[in-house]
Each structure stands twice: as structure tokens, then as C-alpha cells.
Amino acid sequence: MEADQVLGGHPEEAGGDDEAMLWSIQEALERQTLQIGASACGATAVVDVLKALGVDVPPEEADRCVQTRLRRNESPLPDYLLSRSEAGATHAQLIRGAEEAGDGKVAGRFFHLHPRRRVRLVAWLAGWIRRGAVPVATMNMQLAVPEGEEVPDAWHHQLVFGVAANAVFMTNPLDVVSEAEMHQRLCSESVLLVRREDVLQRLTPDCSLSDVSGGQSDPRWEALDVEGQVRKMVLEEEQESDQPKTTHITIPAAYSSGVTLFALRQSELGQELLAAPELPLL
């Protein structure tokens, strides 16, 4: 594997030390922003990105700029599911939000990690962090769930404040995960699992199931046959059976898994980041 393939065009970084930290763990404890509101992990990450780049912005301003979307918990099932598919923010909202909140001083560049890429994740992140870039990971937390733990009900954006051999350090919450675990969550199709109880409790007598897929403009709702998945759950409720029941339905998600790197727009690093090619496919 060639060095420039491993590190997205930085052969000088190849084979180097995998350790690079924006903040020490103690600094991260003191400086990290805890979740600023419902579904606002993206806006929370943007606050810390700007902080790391020397641009201080009030959390509510970052949230306004990111335009965090909320779940519509009181809506009928079709609209509730649509709100679940786009709750929070996409990487594009994070980039626009950081640019706006940072008064144009900050630029972001998203790197897709699905389909799988030819990259050593920790070495690649270390190469950019050492040069001053600030990474935010957009991950499907419903993958690589530790055995015995409940499947989370959302994707998550987290600022990466450092990496070491086989370890990635993140904020909100302060956490360290292995490279393999991180890679799994960063290499996901754009889908979301919705719990059985969240579906069934919104099935009212006047709810038209044909609107679950048919009422959506995105063709992925039909392709995933979300309506058929809901009907299967309804049938399971009506049948007295000892068979295990479906635990989740799968719906399209607005998010893409990968890493957004941020830097000061007018810096050499910022310009290089914006011109960097996508990571090569495996």
C-alpha cells in the first residue's frame, strides 16, 4: 500500500508515530462542551471545533447556525419517522454552521468512509491533527454495539481530540475507542434503526400505513419497504406467537458516515484541506 494512499496525499506522514493530540485528556475534561440540547451533538462538536481553532462562539449561536433538527415525537407515524431520519444534523450542516458561526474564518472538508476506503484510520487522523486540523467523526452508533448493551437510537457527531496506537479520543462524552470499533461506525450505510415501541405507540386508528413509504419524496423509503416492515410488526402484534418479534425497523437516514476536518480558511492547511482528494476506495 503506497503512503499517499494511506494518508490521502501526505507521504511525509507515512510510517510515522500514530500519536497526535489537540488537547491532553485533562485539557479535554476542562475544555469540552457537554451536549447543549436535544439532538444537538453536531452543534456541540462545532462549539469545540471553533474553540480548538481559537474562535470562541456562544453555544446557542453555534446551534442556530447549524440549524439542529428535532424529533417530532407528537406527530403521526409517517411524519415522526421522517423526523427521526433527519433529526440532529448532517456533516453539511456542521460545515455550514462552523463557517457561519466562525464568521467565515473556518472551513470544513468531509471525507466519506463508506463504502470502505483504503486508509489506516489512526495514522491518517494523526497526520492531519499534527498539522492543526480538527476532526469531527460522524458515526452510526448502532454498529459495533458491545455485547449485552442496548442498541443506541441515534447517530452521533464527536470531536476527535487525539489519537494513539489503536486508540481514538473523543469528547461529548469523553471516550476512547479502538481503531476497529471506530472504523465500523464510520463505515456505515445511511440508515437508522427505530425501536419497535417507538413505531407501535404512534400507530393510531387514523394512521394511513401507505403514507409511511408512499408519502416520502426520497425513493429509499420504498426501496427499504418501510411500510412493509411496519405491517410485519403490526401482524406480529395481532398473532399470538412465541416467535421472537422484530425489534427494529430500518429507515433511510440523512447522515453520511465519515470524518469532517476543520481548519482556518486562510491558512495553508485550510486551502490544502479544501483541495484534498477523497480517500481511495478499497
Automatic annotation (TrEMBL):
Source species, domain of life? Eukaryota
For this entry, the protein name equals Uncharacterized protein LOC103374622
Q: What species does this protein belong to?
A: Stegastes partitus (bicolor damselfish)
Q: Which gene encodes it?
A: LOC103374622
